[in-house]
Amino acid sequence: MGLTIDNINQNVVAAKYAVRGELAVKSEEYRAKLSKGDAKDLPFDQVISANIGNPQQLDQKPITFIRQVLSLLENPLLLEKEDVLVQSLGYQTDVIERARKLLKAAGSVGAYSASTGVPAIKESIAEFLERRDGFPADPSKIYLSAGASSGVNTLLNVICAGPKTGILVPIPQYPLYTATLAVLNATCVPYLLDEHRHWGTNLETIRKSYDEAKANGTDVRAIVIINPGNPTGASLPEEDVRAVLEFANKENLVVMADEVYQTNVFLGEFHSFKRMLRLLQQEHPDGSYDSLQLASLHSVSKGMVGECGHRGGYFELCGFDPEVEAQIYKFVSIMLCAPVIGQCLVELMVNPPRKGDPSYELYEKEYNGIYNGLRQRAAALHNAFDEMEGVECDEPQGSMYLFPTINLPAKAAEAAKAEGRTADEFYCMRLLEATGICVVPGSGFGQKENTLHFRTTFLAPGTEWVGSIVKFHKEFMDKYR
Amino acid sequence: MGLTIDNINQNVVAAKYAVRGELAVKSEEYRAKLSKGDAKDLPFDQVISANIGNPQQLDQKPITFIRQVLSLLENPLLLEKEDVLVQSLGYQTDVIERARKLLKAAGSVGAYSASTGVPAIKESIAEFLERRDGFPADPSKIYLSAGASSGVNTLLNVICAGPKTGILVPIPQYPLYTATLAVLNATCVPYLLDEHRHWGTNLETIRKSYDEAKANGTDVRAIVIINPGNPTGASLPEEDVRAVLEFANKENLVVMADEVYQTNVFLGEFHSFKRMLRLLQQEHPDGSYDSLQLASLHSVSKGMVGECGHRGGYFELCGFDPEVEAQIYKFVSIMLCAPVIGQCLVELMVNPPRKGDPSYELYEKEYNGIYNGLRQRAAALHNAFDEMEGVECDEPQGSMYLFPTINLPAKAAEAAKAEGRTADEFYCMRLLEATGICVVPGSGFGQKENTLHFRTTFLAPGTEWVGSIVKFHKEFMDKYR
């Protein structure tokens, strides 16, 4: 007998990944129908993919400086026509200089780089981290990756030694974590985020999950934090970051800080785990924080850069055992290297034009335009949710998402059950069918028992689609009241 | 206690990947020393990385047509200045048309694509397969991947259900296979290639390995074939391809055909597994070959394209159960999508300019120039090996490698043992130290007991480095005679 669902890797079968699940597939079918003009029966004329943080699929334009440099990296022969670039195509001299510098560092972007990335790019990332955190960073501890997802995959592959290994994962969470743990047959130790404290971390809850897991014989090795939050949109206050590190230090846990939304912050400011780790180390000259292990991840996919199709990212390790680092090196070597053009994009993200550089003005204008646009869209969507019956939603803090609670009538829950769906799945499916708007039900991320949510990006332009959600919601509530 | 080599994933610890192992690391240290001018003590003035098939790190120039299109995909604003592109930068009109077409298909290359790839690119690959094989291909069975390595990783993750799952792997092999099987804790069932038949497959040997594994309780699920061969450089004759498929059909094995070197063929021609599968299905109208499962992989990394830094590739499935395909879909979804610029590069590789297109002449000239250069270098290296004492090497057939047998004196074996190395590792380390040339010992790929080999690419330009190998070898033999 050949391969069947019953004899293949059951860990893969067990993995769940709702972000690109049934709803997403159905929305793509609608999109295909619409593009073929074969959609007379559909009550909408466009599909809005609010299920994935995919800025450039919607309205976000790439940043000119970045794409100009990339075009030169792809075709270095253009550098032989500097006058044409400058005079006829509007390329600034700093674009040309940067391209030359990156080409010198990487050789051809068509060549494999060293397994962990182009050395000069790792140095530039280290300089960025030093500017960001006020503490030096070591380029040799930086690993370029194909987006942050690939970095998470590497770290979990190395950390997870079998079903007894437990990883503390926030609930709700981005399902990359639970899916990867399922594939690795390791144990997810869920801890609930505190919806009543703006989806912050609650040390009591974390400790309770940790203690229960230990009591069940699980060897808890790491804690995952997503800050700013996905799907929650939370931006953690400094004291939450500190408390998590203190707890991790006490229990010898690796901290995996998923900080891909670090520039998508609308309230307060971003507090990096790396900076807080160094502060704690300063505060404890006895060395009691010196062996705390932190892996922090970043990506070109989000923020104002929004270049997810390029699959660029990196992670930085602090406090890891050199023998463990050697295994991480070997693991990434097997896949050879991260895409080199994506590596260059990381460099452009962490080292943008500065005041006085010829490209600065346009860069700043584009960057701020994207940032303000996201903030305005988040506010508009939030206002709409505020007016919807039974919907509760925190003020937008960060990332690209809102994650409202929806209180649905009992009749809706019954109708969902009859269809073999959870009530939030049922709601999101009806929303898609009625409006063409694709969001992800809270059950795809995990949620506290007896609560329902959905996650929507606020990337789509205009206000019309927000109006359709409001209208749909009212009709849905009326129908199932 | 935090993470240590003893408590992390022991499957990762067990994995071996020599291509970027100790020798490669040491060669990079030499390179760094040389670039800092700090190498008075080194007996060479450059490092030659003949350990990795990395064409553009050495002499191979990117193909102009490909890079021109990519530059426009990265900066679509250039398309607004078509006159400048054509008149001042020498871009042909087909370059511009192709860029527009790909942009229409992918949207922005900075956006995630569908999980399995941009639909229009999958259609173009299907058309290529039809032209290549003379049989139609189904775009929905094509999965874009980040290089072929990522495709292999996906397939093995889905197929391998635990330690009892066995995968037939050729020896010698590209260590991606054994390393991934180690990480997945599945069983590698090695079968020896036949050095005396130009490293072809030998059905008797395969059957013997298969029977032994079955007798030991291993559930053998798949057979890996690398054609043209890595590290062997073999190009399989049609009858070998047929025999493997007949065997796999009889035993219900998935055939994983790693065909990344399909254009690197110097003797005879490339015979694709897909075409032979369709021929066998035609020959057997009783349907006895209809459920044979084939996954064939290709990549932009090798061939005359040589764009490995872009991490582009794809695999095509034939005969897979739809439920299993759904799991493959989910697995690739977790990592979101292959790099979109790499996907576009796949399209450019499989659909190059044709006779009559404005870019055709230059494309053809560059393509043939690279092909002939590789063939000449292979021949020069082969001639050198022919004259070296105790070295035996087949005529170059395909891929980017020669894999000579080396017969070393007993004294060399003793000296190696004293250093805790195998004799081939010892030889390769001395070669690196003496000449700056980095090759990979045969033990990194597996080799028949009591034989020694090394793998070298023939990508490096010039003949000087070949001369250094000859000189080193003579001195080595004299020293240990």
TrEMBL record, chains A, B:
Cofactor(s) listed: pyridoxal 5'-phosphate
InterPro entries per record: ALAT1/2-like (IPR045088), Aminotransferase_I/II_large (IPR004839), PyrdxlP-dep_Trfase (IPR015424), PyrdxlP-dep_Trfase_major (IPR015421), PyrdxlP-dep_Trfase_small (IPR015422)
MF GO annotations: pyridoxal phosphate binding; transaminase activity
Keywords, alphabetical: Aminotransferase, Pyridoxal phosphate, Transferase
Signal peptide stretch: none
Domain (Aminotransferase class I/classII large): residue spans on this chain: 93-463
One matching Pfam family: Aminotran_1_2
Top-level lineage group: Eukaryota
Family statement drawn from the similarity comment of this UniProt entry: Belongs to the class-I pyridoxal-phosphate-dependent aminotransferase family. Alanine aminotransferase subfamily.
Record note on quaternary structure: Homodimer.
Protein name: Glutamate pyruvate transaminase
Organism: Sarocladium strictum
